Amino acid sequence: MKKIVLFCFVLCLQMTHAQTNRLWQGYFSFNSLKDVTRKSSTVYAASENAVFFQKPTDGFLETITTINGLKADNITTIHYSEAYQVLLVGNDNGLLLVVDKDGKVAYKNGILTEVPVPASVKKINHFNEYDGKVYIACDYGISVFDLDQMEFGDTYYIGNGGAQVKVYQTTVYNGFIYAATDSNGIKSAAVTNPFLIDFNQWQVFDSGNWLGIQAKQNQLMLCNTNNIIYTSNGTGFNPVYTLGQAAVDFRVVDNYTVITTAQKVVVLNAGNTLETLVNTSQYTAEPVTFNAAIVASDQLYIATNEVGLLETGMSSINLQVLKPSGPDSNQPFRLLKTDDKLFVTYGKFNFTYNPYSPTPPYQPYLLPINYFTKDLGWSKIPTTDIFNARSLSSVAVNPKNTSEAYISSYFSGVLKLEDMVPTVLYNQTNTGTNGLESLVLSPPDPTYVDIRINGLKYDSKGNLWMTNAYVDKGIKVLKSGGQWQSFDLNTVLTEPFFERYGQIQIDKNDTKWIPSYRANGLIIFNENYNNKCLLVKTGTEGNLPSMDVRCVAIDNRNQVWIGTARGLRTISSADTFINADNIQSKAIIINEVIDGVELAQELFYEQVILDICVDGANRKWVSIADSGVYLVSANGQETIYHFTKENSPLPSNNVADIEIDGTTGEVFFATEKGLISYKGTATKPSDDLAGVYVYPNPVRPEYTGTVKIAELTDKAIVKITDIEGNLVYETTASGGTIEWDTTAFGKYRVASGVYMIFISGEDGIETAVRKVMIIR
Question: How far is CA 748 from each of CA 278, 290, 400, 741, 751, rounded to the nearest angstrom?
Fold first, then answer.
């Protein structure tokens, strides 16, 4: 190995790429729970796409998420097999996930890919384990899963004439399997019958309307759509309890019958008399609805749609919340990372900028604001404090007063926070004649107020800029002195009263770069140049691939990256705007090998680009609709990573927003199924090498990650040697942090010992030396 003289050495510029151990972090919500199950005294609870459980030894809450390999779709039901020590997770698309006792996840796609029925009827409704088999009740019938072989067996279509029929539940009683269906009553057959695949073997047990059926001791328990619970010995029905409400979950456990409605949980004892009754009104912290419940070790656990899992004793009701720390929703929409906080909002609007929900009550979303701090974890500003502001989207923190923040509402105006407390909702009533405006309906309705504000961004003078959709004066600013101003671009824009806008970016010249949706392409505006405004459009007017501009980013070298609904364009310098009368964008051309032939292609040709974010190394993180996230090099010529749901812990291939912590390099992804981050290393470079530090240090035997060297200057040269001066690693920093995988140039792990780290600035003048101890 070559050696470096410790007192006099020359550092050479050399780029190397080390294989590193990247870390992911999940920030999932467990507020909305879909089902519960148990393993002895351990209760498992499932949210939309993750599971948590409480370890009985220490009470610690442990999660099973995409970080652990649980890539669920939309969880509908779960079941723990005590005999086989596996957790079964069913989804609304038929996907079955099997989690073993070591946490390993197996994907069983038999229903998803092989059952020849429409995708819309593959939902898994219930698991019933009996004699080494799981009878899976689905919207089309019953599928059998063999726990010994861990594979699917037969599928039973038990509707009249062999038709598909939705099966709510199955159970086995006195040698017969019973199935409660939504339109064919209850059907039954001998469970040992080898020909259950033949619908003729299934007989009608009762033609009534039943929601559930469960075996309990020497009887059947049944739940009817008339909201009455019955027992049966196989020949008749006896009513034992009247719910008065529609059941949403029905089960038997430990000889208890547990029935859940949206407003209450009823527990019947072995004698079918009332043991416990819990109403939603008994939880007073906030309104809740119930989804499912289970009994374990004489405790009742209730899955709610709003606050996670509620736990109480059976005899004395004292509802306590049980859930891992997390945000309020798994549908984050916009993020902002400041020095000490991560803001999350949920007020989504759709692809055409419509903030109204597509389902009842057809209103813009009214959801809380979350923020995360390292010391306190997750906090929230509840909906009761935000003046009924709906569809909250982008966040901006005043750089001159970080206790002051603003959140745009794509329906209600702009919400002001002081020390994280909402103080003012700015709208058309309190911003003057030159302030915020409501859209005008046709024909006009003076009672209708709809103020669609988006894209908050501060300029260098402390002025807060934003867009106001569906009005002539679509660009607004709240001056640092508190005055409001509007800019009428009616003579420049095409039909501004129909236009909608994306997130504003502001360059070092205080020029505003504004994506538009409908007819104006990329809008470039600067009030300091006599309200100069240019449009970058398609064809000869700017060479954009689409007039629908979804996002814009200005990189560390002042280059403009433009994401549209049909691909990517760049502008070589934002400064071009100052003197230009017309700006042409350019595609990035890369060479791709297709069928063995190298061809020139546009980067992200015809792709819908949702967001672009620039990291500390000037690389670009690019979100593509339905295709996950790409990390490309500073010039776009090299794809460094392509993260998808299939090859990474991303819970969805649709990433609405990307945000980067410039200090740590952590990259946050707001997906439609949860918030997740990637522990990147492209932090912002430091101005000097005085603060360089190494972590972890020492590196202990149980640690499996990489060593980080942080607070570097850009293009700092790093060389690592053993104590004798043998070179084991060298690289050049791109940004403020580099990683070392503790191998000698990726070939073998280095031995225990002290390793010297020699750092030199790009110019070779400034240097620093650090040490790291490695213990194997």
Answer: 60, 54, 50, 10, 9
Q: Rounded to 5 degrees, what are φ and ψ at 312? A: -155, 160
For every residue of 234-286, DSSP letters joined together read SS--EEEEE-SS-EEEEEEETTEEEEEESSEEEEE-TTSSEEEEEEGGG--SS
In this structure, which amino acid lies at residue 597?
V
Cα–Cα distance measured from residue 749 to residue 776, given in angstroms and rounded to the nearest whole number? 9
Band (pLDDT 50/70/90 cuts) for residue 735 is: confident
Task: Provide the residue count of the chain.
Answer: 776
Structure confidence by residue, pLDDT tens digits, 225-275: 999 999 999 888 999 999 999 999 999 999 999 999 999 999 999 999 999
Cα distances (Å, whole numbers) of residue 206 to 125, 534, 595: 21, 73, 61
Q: Specify the amino acid at residue 594.
A: I
Q: Are strands 142-146 and 151-156 parallel, antiparallel or unpaired?
A: antiparallel
β-strand 238-242 against 707-710: which pairing, if any? Answer: unpaired
As a whole number of angstroms, the distance between CA 317 and CA 278 comes to: 7
Nearest partner of 7 among 756, 750, 763, judged by Cα? 756
The CA R_g of the chain, rounded to the nearest whole Å, is 30
Phi and psi at 730, nearest 5°, equal -155, 145
Tokens of 585: 């964008």
414, 417, 335: which is closest to 371 by C-alpha? 335
219 phi and psi, to 5 degrees?
-150, 170
Lookup: tokens for 415: 């919400």
Q: Within 10 A of 298 (CB to CB), how many other CB atoms are there? A: 11
Half-sphere exposure of 655 (CA within 13 A, CB side): 31
Give which of 206, 193, 271, 203 is closest to 235, Cα–Cα: 206
β-pairing, 620-624 with 609-614?
antiparallel
- Per residue in 638-667, pLDDT tens? 998 999 999 999 999 999 999 999 888 899
In angstroms, the CA 514 to CA 536 distance is 10
Residues 34-51, buried b or exposed e (16+ Cβ, 10 A)? bbbbbbeebbbbbbbbbb
**Global confidence as pTM:** 0.89
Residues 209, 248: Cα–Cα separation, whole Å: 15
Token pair of 489 as six digits: 């671009």
Reported as type and span, the H/E element at residue 136 is: strand 133-138
Helix (H) or strand (E) holding 576: helix 576-579
Strands 674-679 and 666-671, by their bridges, are: antiparallel
Assess contact for 314 and 255: CB atoms under 8 A: no
Sheet strands (E) in 437-566: 451-458, 464-468, 475-478, 484-487, 505-506, 512-515, 522-526, 532-536, 549-554, 560-564
